[in-house]
Amino acid sequence: MQTQTPLTPTATPLYQAWQQLRSQQSGLRARDAAARLSVSEAELTASRIGIDSVRLRPEWADLLPALEALGYVMALTRNEHCVHERKGHYREVSVMPNGQMGMVVSADIDLRLFMGGWDSVFAVEEETVRGTQRSIQIFDRQGTAVHKVFLTASSQLEAWAPLVERFRAEEQNAALDLQPLPAAEPIKADELIEVGALREAWSQLKDTHHFFALLRKYGTARTQALRLAGREWAEPLAPELLPQLLEQAGADEVPIMVFVGNQHCIQIHSGPVRNLRWLDAWFNVMDPEFNLHLKTTSVASLWRVRKPSSDGIVTSWEAFDANGEMIVQLFGARKPGIPERADWRELAESFAALPA
Q1: Which burial class, exposed, middle or buried, applies to 162 when counting CB atoms under 10 A from its CB (0-12, 13-18, 19+)?
Q2: E-strand stretches of the chain
Q3: pTM exceeds 0.85, yes or no
Q4: Average pLDDT, the chain
Q5: Is 78 in contact with 145 (CB distance < 8 Å)?
Q6: What is the distance between the alpha carbons of residues 353 and 154, in angstroms, rounded to a whole number?
Q7: What percent of the chain has pLDDT over 70?
Q8: Which domains, ranges and CATH numbers included, belong to the chain?
Q9: Residue 348: what pLDDT?
């Protein structure tokens, strides 16, 4: 017979419904519970205020650098189909003066931050079967989790309470000004794209970071551009090859860069991948400092992409879902100003493309 979690007198109806659900499915994660209860994860987290959650002021330019005081943490960024977890230190944080963009460029935690859509942030201190789990959780205007930072057994626990108190919001209420997701821009028909000009501009790229501007200039969706670029620059691959590439990179000890993100945050791992495991449809990297959880059945298309740069050709593998949204992107480990690794290029090029 299952026992229900005791409810505090201040528990909201939403929190009570969540605890009832947890009593029936003890391992249910907050994201999945929110979906079951037809609310956003931010609303679910806000329902915990006064119980095990504190609302913080969304002062990103001050809050993000303050996370360095927590020491060795685990940063988590995900999309619908892939979870990226990287342990390390939150160092070298920069936020642009307009507050819309930022970066974390430490050797271990490497982030690109697009903060225009960031909205609410909470400090959560939850009791679990493994002990107290403390985290900073950031959500967008739709209530979807953007980025989370978890304390580890090696974190500076004494820095937690002062940080929470420093950024505690004056009003500890659950009210969220959630907004509907803006409608996606319609995709142009292929015949309206200047394919010749697109291919020429592609061939003249000097920096892979300029690729997004190229897509904007010609009004193409990313997967559409890959289809139209020609096989010199992009080739489709069978989706089932993606785990095989990771397995071979691990076996050959080829250090790679793994990019996973959402609209508001991209998280990057640079280094080897070694402990690789399947769990049902999920392919996982379970290394001490880097974990990746990839739902392979969500990969609707996979591309080998080549982009010219001032350092030579840069080769990537890019996986997309059925809506053309990026799931994960892989490169050989490299720094700007350094040519692509020969072992990565050989590996990335060793798999046959799908027939034309």
Answers
A1: exposed
A2: 53-56, 71-78, 82-89, 93-95, 101-105, 110-114, 118-128, 131-140, 145-155, 234-237, 256-261, 265-271, 276-279, 282-286, 290-295, 301-307, 314-320, 326-332
A3: yes
A4: 94
A5: yes
A6: 45
A7: 97
A8: 13-92+118-167 (3.40.1570.10), 190-348 (3.40.1570.10)
A9: 98
Q: What is the mean pLDDT of residues 29-34?
A: 92
Pairing of strands 131-140, 118-128: antiparallel
Residues, the chain: 356
DSSP symbol at 248: H
Residue 183 binned pLDDT confidence (cut-offs 50, 70, 90): confident
What are the CA-CA distances from residue 257 to residues 38, 118, 285, 335 (Å)?
35, 25, 13, 10
Residue where the block lists tokens 């620059």: 233
Q: What pLDDT digit, counting tens, does each position of 70-96 carry?
A: 999 999 999 999 999 999 999 999 999
The answer to whether the beta carbons of residues 336 and 233 sit under 8 Å apart is no
Q: Which of 102-109's residues contact partners 24+ apart within 8 Å by CB, and which partners? A: 102/60, 102/61, 102/64, 104/64, 108/289, 109/73, 109/75, 109/267
Which residues are CB-neighbours of 97 under 8 A, at least 6 positions away? none
Q: Are 100 and 115 in contact (CB under 8 A)?
A: yes
DSSP letter for 91, please: -
Q: According to the model, what pLDDT value does residue 4 have?
A: 40
Q: Is the pLDDT of residue 199 over 50?
A: yes
Contacts of 137 (CB under 8 A, 6+ apart): 45, 121, 122, 123, 124, 145, 148
